[in-house]
Amino acid sequence: MLIITSAGTNIAGPCYAENEKARKVLNGLLTDDTYFAIIYAYDDGDDWKDPANLIKANPSLGAILRPDVLENDLNDALITPSHRADFKAKTCGIWQNAASSWIPMQKWDTETRNARADISEFEGEPCFAGLDLSSVNDFTAYTKCFEKGGKYYLYHKFYVPSEQVSEKYRVENINIGSWIDGGLVTATPGATIDYEYIIADIKADNERFNIQELAYDKWQSDKLIDSLEELLPKTALIEYSQGIRQISNPSKEFERLILEDKIVDPNPVMKWMVSNAAIKVDANGNYKPLKEYKSSRKKIDGVITSIMSIDRCMASEGGGGNASLDDVLRLFG
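Request: output the structure for the sequence above.
Response:
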């Protein structure tokens, strides 16, 4: 079988997965003598605005492709920001997330971010968690955050109803089967999310780790939180406002930590969710992550739980955080 393609703007699809395998083979991280791969693309750190680099991703430049055509495309991308993602992917070989996205994929996909850290290293250590319950037939996200050496280590669990898996693969074109097989996503039986699986996972984590706080979005969470209050008497359960003024500073801190490469999170589901996140900015410069448009099937639940868990972790360190009224009242016993 021979496959030839350009880079693209959907990192959750099978093409990106093939690209990841090719990169691992070429970098000696994976041995497969039956697999031949060659990638023509810009190197990390190359200036995509420099026309001298075009030959790197376009080996037929001057023979089949006319240089002036690609240079015209480059000029168009420079003056039309909405065209840049497509130009970088198709002409430069640089995988992109959506043009309107918040975090550039090259800023997320770093060596530090993809470092593997065994979660067993954090047994008994302070843990701060975030929980986002989506609609009963969609993704739900649960994230644990640990701080060590100035870096924040994130571990996620995602849940989806088993009867929705085929539909999500067909309509959303995501590698959900591989994610389930790899233990990254739990497919709960039936057509809706079975919250008992989430409760069981949190209970098990609480026995293994020191979950000091669990921040949650109030939407659809009342019954689950009631159950957790009985199971986790020593864990502070904190209702976390999703309003733009309340979540703006934590969102900006999350962005800062990404740009400073202080987050370790190699989870490919999270990578997809980061690529889906756009931002809404108000007149005061506050912003929060959102889907590109309200009806979009692209999910960002893991982004929300990461922001919540990191914010609570930073608050425990005296970094401020998004303190709620409950937090203030708790100080007075």
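The chain has two domains: 14-96, 119-330.
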